[in-house]
Amino acid sequence: MTLSHDLFARARVRMPGGVNSPVRAFAAVGGEPVFFERAEGAHMFDVDGKRYIDYIGSWGPMICGHSHPKIIEAVQAAVAKGLSFGTPSPGEVTMAEKICELIPSLDQVRMVNSGTEAAMSALRVARAATGRERFIKFEGCYHGHADSFLVKAGSGAQTLGVPTSPGVPKGLAELTLNAKFNDLDSVEALFKQYPDEIACVAVEPIAGNMNCIPPEPGFLEGLRELCDRYGAALLFDEVMTGFRVHPQGAQGLYGITPDLTCFGKVIGAGMPVGAFGGKMEYMKLVAPSGPVYQAGTLSGNPVAMAAGLANLELIGEPGFYDRLGETTRQLAEGLQRVADEAGIPMATVAVGGMFGFFFTEQNRVVNFDQAAACDLERFKAFFTGMLAEGIYLAPSAFEAGFVSSAHSQSDVDETLAAAERVLGQISK
Ligand code: PLP
């Protein structure tokens, strides 16, 4: 028996499902989760001493690899001065200046403690700014676990919110409208149905919570145009894509200007951080400038700001995104090649430091229905085989993968050699 097994047995007694966030429990792939105690660069080490090449990167923040010396140093220096003051402190000012300088669509930004808080608060601002209560999101997109976002329309109820999670009030769920990702007609139909009632369209500009699905050409432009036409705000949830796919996030990569943007992950470098920001006409509404209440005991925490600023400095180095994109492309193309050689139908995708792979006969996957129709059993077998090989992929077919600047050519080669063996096994 392993130490991971013992820990999970104890965890299940005192923690729901033995974890503090559901996807960690391995429910979608079977088996028991691995408990980790140390991570460095592209590698993580479990409590039983096994080394893994990590493609989760703590779900996105670790774009420079784990335990980067410059980030650890910045955190240690900040810790030595105090953990939290509950007052304004210099790091928050530098962070706000830095984010607004990097992302031209932002006049102001408010720091929060998670992506969930960022999305929840940005939605509140959009509702307040427009005086409207309904909003549109996309099936398969995730914006954290605030009530309004935990809603997914069933096939027969495209326009009527059906709570995905018990505990979400029906009255609130009805205000959440679900459209199809990469399908502008489904968005326009909702605007036509509720022309004066939609506060915003919230979208992951590259969907990373139904595997990895980039926008089709014209999709984001079309959303911008529809929002302008119907007087709604365009809310980009860049919690995952922000500083991961381009120095200016997905909005920079595709050249679209949203009204409001959410961030998380990379801007915290592994500390609990989120942020939302936008044009002044929206941000002036946020308390104490305006009446939209939003607050946080630990928001703008000095240690978290130090970590995030060190990360933003590292990703600003010349050529950072070229190298990251190249490693990610090599990984995705390599996976495609070994799958093709094994005769296993697969579609792969890479954008910046994000990648995805689908066990499907289709050339590419563009929405949730298609992602859900992929061979999930085959994913499970692949995941399990790769884990045994020491390759740590997300334990769900509906998550994007993440590469860091610490992933070397030999990490990619090792991963592809393992994939070749595992795909060879599961093709039999
Ligand atoms: N938005 C997106 C696009 C995300 O991917 C996530 C988390 O994965 C969130 C929001 C929620 O962020 P958090 O888990 O920090 O609350």
Automatic annotation (TrEMBL):
GO terms for biological process: protoporphyrinogen IX biosynthetic process. It catalyses: (S)-4-amino-5-oxopentanoate = 5-aminolevulinate. GO terms for cellular component: cytoplasm. GO terms for molecular function: glutamate-1-semialdehyde 2,1-aminomutase activity; pyridoxal phosphate binding; transaminase activity. This is Glutamate-1-semialdehyde 2,1-aminomutase. Its cofactor is pyridoxal 5'-phosphate. Its EC number is 5.4.3.8. Pathway: Porphyrin-containing compound metabolism; protoporphyrin-IX biosynthesis; 5-aminolevulinate from L-glutamyl-tRNA(Glu): step 2/2. It holds the Pfam family Aminotran_3. Keywords: Cytoplasm, Isomerase, Porphyrin biosynthesis, Pyridoxal phosphate.
